[in-house]
Amino acid sequence: MAIPVMLSKIFRHDCIYVRPEAGISQPADLRGERVGLPQYSSTAGVFIKGLVQHEYGVGPTEISWFMGGQDTPAPAPLVPLDLPADINLEFIPEGETLEGMLTAGELDALFATYIPNLFLNGSPKIARLFPNFKEVEQDYYRRTGIFPIMYTVVVREDVHREHPGVASSLFDASTEAKELAVDCLYDTDALALTLSFLIDHLEETWKTFGSDYWSYGVASNRPSLEALAQYVVDQGLAPRVVSPEELFPETAL
Predict the structure, then answer these.
(1) Which site in 139, 170, 185, 214 is 20 to 30 Å from 54, CA atoms measured?
(2) What is the C-alpha separation between 33 and 19, in angstroms, rounded?
(3) What's the pLDDT score for residue 253?
């Protein structure tokens, strides 16, 4: 049983990288291309594929997918994903990496979980598809209300049945902990993080998201939850759309 405490959130437009020689200048150019990603079924990969489909019209069946280690070789999964036949997913050869294949011209784009070493090292073989990702992501949020989530909190169903108040207690405690963590950020006596313009960043964030910019609960996160539920169906990872009401106990809604 899930508790609507979204511990981690991150926009994913800035995680789409391309090989400049591939001629991909806009999302629609991904159609028919070879795209690598560390995990087809990870939350990061699901949200990237989902925004490419729902924002730019390129569905998962229109791309050739290659899964493997991003910068370190990874073993093939013991149990392969049971995907529809029209989704083309291959595991990259043993000893290869996605970044290596991008450099060699064997991939055209990379949906990265974390910033690639190629990019960090200034390689001309890689570039962000959205150099102005901040503006794109702000516009995306204003239009859709989606702030992609990654993790939530769960409690065992038998514990929930025996102690029905545990969901609301966990939610309240998590909310209080979050407020303690974020309240100290807006303090000009001494910055809480090593970010020179932290105060300006916070004030800009409030303008985009409102004061509760890292909200918990179902209502404020419903656009993200409903999008994710649809994306996993679109991408062949789930047989049907699951509503937030099915995921979370009434006491935590």
Answers:
(1) 214
(2) 11
(3) 56
- Picking from 12, 15, 18, the residue whose alpha carbon sits closest to that of residue 123 is 18
Containing 152, the helix (H) or strand (E) segment is strand 149-154
Is 0.90 surpassed by the pTM of this model? yes
Is the pLDDT at 188 greater than 70, yes or no?
A: yes
Q: In whole angstroms, what is the distance from residue 59 CA to residue 50 CA?
A: 8
Other CB atoms within 10 Å distance of the CB of residue 52: 26
Average pLDDT across the chain, whole number: 95
Taking alpha carbons only, the member of 23, 12, 46 closest to residue 109 is 23
Among 58-72, 93-107, 108-122, 238-252, name the one with the lowest average pLDDT: 238-252
Phi and psi at 171, nearest 5°, equal -65, -45
Whether the per-residue pLDDT at 85 is higher than 80: the answer is yes
Return the H-helix or E-strand segment holding 153.
strand 149-154
* Closest of 48, 37, 60, 64 to residue 14, by C-alpha: 48
Read off the tokens for 199. 């105060």
Taken in order 226, 231, 234, 236, the sign of the CA dihedral is negative
Placement of tokens 């490419």 in the chain = 52
Alpha-carbon span 35 to 66, nearest angstrom: 6
